[in-house]
Amino acid sequence: MLAPTEIIQNVKTLRNELERHNYRYYVMDDPTVPDVEYDRLMNRLKDIEAKYPLLIVPESPTQRVGGAPLAGFTQVTHEMPMLSLDNAFSEDDMQDFNRRIIGRLGNIGAEDGVVEYVCEPKLDGIAVSLLYEKGQLVRGATRGDGETGEDITQNVRTVNSIPLKLMGSGYPERLEVRGEIYMPKSSFDALNQEAERTDNKLFVNPRNAAAGSLRQLDPKITAGRNLEMCCYSVGIVEGGAFSDTHSDSLYCLNQWGFRINAEMKVVADVDGCLSYYQSISEKRNLLPYEIDGVVFKVNNLALQQRLGFVSRAPRWAIAHKFPAQEELTTVLDVEFQVGRTGAVTPVARLVPVFVGGVTVSNATLHNMDEIERLGLMIGDSVIIRRAGDVIPKVVKVVEEKRPDNACSVTFPALCPVCESEVIQLEGEAVARCSGGLFCAAQRKEAIKHFASRKAMDIDGLGDKLVESLVDEDYIKSVADLYKLTRFQVASMDRMAEKSANNLLGALERSKNTKLSSFVYALGIREVGETTARTLSNAFGTLEKIRTANVETLLAVQDVGPIVANHIVSFFEQSHNNEIIEQLIAVGVHWPDVVVDETDKVFQGKTFVITGTLSQMSREEAKEKLLELGAKVSGSVSKKTYCLIAGEAAGSKLKKAEDLGINIMNEQAFIDLL
Ligand code: IVH
Question: Which domains are seen in the chain, by residue range?
Answer without folding.
Answer: 5-63 (1.10.287.610), 87-321 (3.30.470.30), 325-434 (2.40.50.140), 436-510 (1.10.150.20), 515-585 (1.10.150.20), 597-672 (3.40.50.10190)
